[in-house]
Amino acid sequence: MRVTDKFREGSTLFSFEILPPQKGKNIDHIYQAIDTLLEFDPAYINVTYHREEYIYKKREKGYLEKVAVRKRPGTVGICAAIKYKYNIEAVPHLICGGFSKDETENALIDLSFLGIRNVLALRGDPIKTETHFVPSEGGNASALELVQQIRNLGRGLYMDEDVKDADPLDFCVGVAGYPEKHFESPNLALDIHFLKQKIDAGADYIVTQLFYDNAKFFDFVAKCREAGISVPIIPGIKPLSLLSHIKFMPKFFHVDLPEALTIELIKCRTDKDVAALGTEWAVTQCKELIKSGVPSIHFYTMGKGQQTADIAKAVY
């Protein structure tokens, strides 16, 4: 089922995102996080994809060897497990970095064979050793190109021109939006311009980057509508839970913390204090978002379900 069909049900839906476990850990860690949130009837579950990283290993005579590693593999397998264990729609992240267009096409074919019909199309982050995003050889350079490739498959157009009378692959495609603009964009207006290109190319809905100021989300939605973007826009929520988040969230996700939240945060002395405040703040955010009529709220759990469950109990 397409997740956009679920958005038409009327009430604000509940969905969340999980991380694949680190290599060496089994899927039970994922099941534990999901089980904590089942009572809230999740409409769908996103599964992130993490591209390769490069590390240097010492070899004989002091030489260093550059080695590519994937610390969190298993996105496709986890999506299949979720779909068939829980009968919940799973939405894998598809990224540009680390894949050629042929490899992306093959991944989409695998997903289709597994009955997975929803994807989130993202450019993805640069490799940590790169100062800016560099596409893989023969790969998509942007989320726009990725959306275009997915939609071409929907018309039966494959990379191999010799494939004739091909069956189309029909996917519901989500893309990312940034209420406070993408950090690489010079301003929000240009960011929305490029977002509209993804929608015009065939993306079906938008899920936003996390934010802590609802006013910025509402302003973003208004500007999207003014630009002619009419697809559902789903707010993304990530509650603060650690003292380190006070500096980490603004730096890593390029978001502002509202003054009222900051005033309370500087009073916190422990992770427990931050988690309690983070839960309270997210509950207030969610209640206002639900009152505004958003189709769904999407929670970034970072693999931990209990704090999201505490919020959901207060608002659903």
Q: Short description, anyone?
A:
The protein contains 11 helices and 10 strands. By secondary structure, the protein is of the alpha/beta class.
What are the salient characteristics of this protein?
316 residues, alpha/beta, TIM Barrel, 8-stranded parallel barrel, 11 helices, 10 strands, globular
Q: Would you write up a description of this structure?
A:
The two termini are 23 Å apart. The chain is 40% helix and 18% strand. Helix 5 runs parallel beside helix 6. It has a single domain (3-241, 286-315), classed as TIM Barrel (Alpha-Beta Barrel). The protein is an alpha/beta fold and 316 residues long. Helix 4 (101-113) links the parallel strand 5 and strand 6. The strands form 2 sheets. It has an 8-stranded parallel beta barrel with strand order 1-2-5-6-7-8-9-10, surrounded by 4 helices. A two-stranded antiparallel sheet has the order 3-4.
Quickly give the CATH architecture: Alpha-Beta Barrel
Q: For the largest beta sheet, what order do the strands appear in spatially?
A: 1-2-5-6-7-8-9-10
Low-confidence stretches: none
What would CATH call the class? Alpha Beta
Strand content: 15-25%
> What would the average pLDDT be, to the nearest integer?
92
Total domain units: 1
Described by strand count, sense and barrel closure, the largest sheet is:
8 strands, parallel, barrel
H and E string: HEHEEEHEHEHEHEHEHHHEH
